[in-house]
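Subject: sequence -> structure tokens, single chain

Hey, anyone have a minute? Need the predicted structure for the following. Not urgent.
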Amino acid sequence: MMRKFKIMNGEGRYFDLNSKEFFFHSIGGFGYKDSTQFKQIGTDFIPLEEIFSQGELKGFIFFGGLRAYQEYREFTRFVRATPLTLVYQPDEEYRVPVRLLEIEKGELMDGGIGLNCEVSFIATGLFYKGVAKNSDTLYIGGKIYPYVYSYAYADISQNTLLIDSDSYVDSPCRISIYGPCVNPVWKHYVDNVLYETGAYSGTIPDGRKLVVDTTTMPYSITERGSGDEIVADRYQMCDFTTERFFLLKHGLNRISVVHDGLNAANMVVEGKISYETV
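Reply:
Had a minute. Here:
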């Protein structure tokens, strides 16, 4: 199976790097380097904090055909609309946030077949694989009808979701708790052991949602409308004796939500299962 590459820019547009006109090849830097710092105690070296070096993904982009110079300019303008995400598909699809660090430009190759430009992308995060679960169900006449939705449905019940992570890297997630709900409490279990909790004091009305997000920096807790627009920052209305923000752990992650209202609590959890290398 041939690996595939494409880039998404900050405007949500894609640039295919597997076509005859634009081809990313001779790649390198897709592994990782451990930069953990150690403290020596006697003859032992104790790791202080496990960290990875910032990745640098290298290769060449071939701009082929009679329009090679125009294609080069098109690409260099495309990548200025940051942030960029490199989509890499060796078998499954993975993504990594990047910036274009350097691109070289020379003359047309012999015969005028195109430009072969060396490029370097600096990674601003780890590779990740997207996963999403949706607990939303519709009750009509005593029966349960699932909405037509692109997410997988709950594994246990309406207010509980399961996400299995095969990564040993802590992975961010975005929890959306849909109104109407009153004083919601969200809990995170890892391999059936309660790991952390969060709580909000207030009411989320119908048509809105409370979003607890660790997929972007800084972390945030916001009330949002149906179009995902931010209505208000709700961080200060949360219980500071709880952890509030969740990261998915290696193993079986169970996330549940309860509230003081009479209706069942619906939620969506979107995770970025992160990897050092893929």
